[in-house]
Design goal:
heterodimer; A: about 120 residues; mainly beta; 7-stranded mixed sheet; 4-stranded antiparallel sheet; about 0% helix; globular; B: about 110 residues; about 50% strand
């Protein structure tokens, strides 16, 4: 149980385009989803927390207009990197936390999406 | 703000050696504690967690961790490592009642056959 998927697993795009990354909880309802960014040789950096049906809460220094997060259902959250630039190239990871059962109080992670902006 | 320190960034062990990875956190209140593992090419997986009760927590694959409140520590241990334990290990902490989880920088473990 407690499986989280991400799509796509990797994406290459041109500078200036927008990229959407999906995060799905496959076998539990995720009331809360988290988006992280992982830089080489560094830990996960939390970008934002999203609760189903509410606006996302962004961490300090993360541009909410650049990284649009939508958590429209209990099993799906999306991160859209708008007008992507090379400095946005990174590894983006989502996690999901449920309100009960296997997912309660524990984050379960997706496999990540590697974004390369040319 | 919560911070998490993992003291060993890169550990190299021979098979059958014992393992202890250090983890300390800064916030003195009630916390939930986690160890995650990331095998090469795979995503983060939960190894074990502590919410309350017995401070000695047993996880998957023979790992255990001990919560010592007075030392703000949650060290990960395994009596005898295997080559398949080669991975990166992350300690994580969240303040009880809050959603945000803070991660340590990770420790890369390399087990030599």
């Amino acid at each position: 149980g407690a499986v989280v998927s991400q799509h796509p697993s990797w994406v290459i795009c041109k500078s200036g385009t927008s990229v959407k990354i999906e995060c799905r909880s496959l076998d539990f309802q995720a009331t809360t989803m988290f988006w992280y960014r992982q830089f080489p040789k560094q830990s996960l950096m939390l970008m934002a927390t999203s609760n189903e049906g509410s606006k996302a809460t962004y961490e300090q220094g993360v541009e909410k207009d650049k990284f649009l997060i939508n958590h429209a259902s209990l099993t799906l959250s999306t991160l859209t990197v708008t007008s992507a630039h090379p400095e946005d190239s990174s590894f983006y990871i989502c996690s999901a936390m449920g309100s009960g059962g296997a997912g309660v109080k524990t984050q379960y992670f997706g496999p990540g999406t590697r974004l390369l902006v040319l | 703000a919560q911070s998490v320190s993992q003291h060993n960034h890169h550990v190299i062990l021979s098979e059958a050696a014992s393992l202890e990875l250090g983890c300390n956190y800064s916030y003195g209140g009630t916390v939930n504690l986690f160890w995650y593992v990331q095998y090469p090419g795979q995503h983060l997986q939960l190894l074990l967690k502590y919410f309350s009760g017995d401070p000695l927590v047993k996880g998957i694959k023979g790992f255990e961790a001990e919560f010592i409140k007075s030392k703000f520590s949650f060290n990960l241990r395994k009596p005898s490592v295997q080559w398949s334990d080669t991975a990166e290990y992350f300690c994580a902490v969240n303040n009880r009642g809050y959603q945000k989880v803070t991660f340590g920088i990770g420790t890369k473990l390399q087990v030599i056959p």
